[in-house]
Amino acid sequence: MDAIARNLKTIQETIAAACDRANRNPAKVTLVAVSKLRSPEAILAAADAGVQHFGENRVEEAQEKLPEIADLIRDQTKAYDLTWHMVGHIQSRKARHIPVLFDMVHSVDNIKLAEKLSRLASARQPLDVLLQMNVSGEESKSGFPAANWRTDADVRDQVWSRTKFILKLPGLRVRGLMTMAPIVADMEQTRPVFASLAALRDALSESLGVALPELSMGMTDDYPVAVEEGATMVRIGRALFGE
Length: 243
Ligand SMILES: *Cc1c(COP(=O)(O)O)cnc(C)c1O
Fold this sequence. Notes:
about 45% helix; alpha/beta; binds pyridoxal-5'-phosphate; single chain
């Protein structure tokens, strides 16, 4: 077994163990392999090991790499059905490339971008999106400001009104929320951030009467905790492809 296949097995076992602890079904957790800076060959190796979902964080890199991967796949005897996720911050002027390249966007983090994607998707086909929420309050993180959404009425009003606005945009299917936890020494410290996103999803879903089934949270350093707290998508790079 090569390294990627071995790593995949470890990740799957880790997800299964976390699901076990939380009484969850591991089939409800999708691994999104974050393949930024990885070669088309490494991506194909992951696909061969059984990964179906891949995430990129830069438009330019995806524009270059996705056609190369399509070419590689065309040369194989086996059929591949890969799903592409955009997980990084999107500059407004690059938005037009998104619906062409990606099946799902995890990183809708401002109204302008949502409106742009809505226009583009309306002319094409519905686009699945997640709203990125900055629940940790870290300045360096993008996302709609959502720290202390439970206790700060202004934050809460903003999150609610922006979510309502985006839910009404044509062409977008809002599937749930995404967040990034701070980098910490002990992954246990990320738990309140993931729990806060899950609770925010529940609250929005109930008060707006919409299903928001997806929670994209957890990366290499913290995904077991994210899964325990309800992640339906984990975005993993280094644990799969190596450091
Ligand atoms: C790079 C990246 C990941 C994966 O990070 P690892 O720590 O390598 O697992 C997940 N999400 C986003 C948005 C990223 O940019």
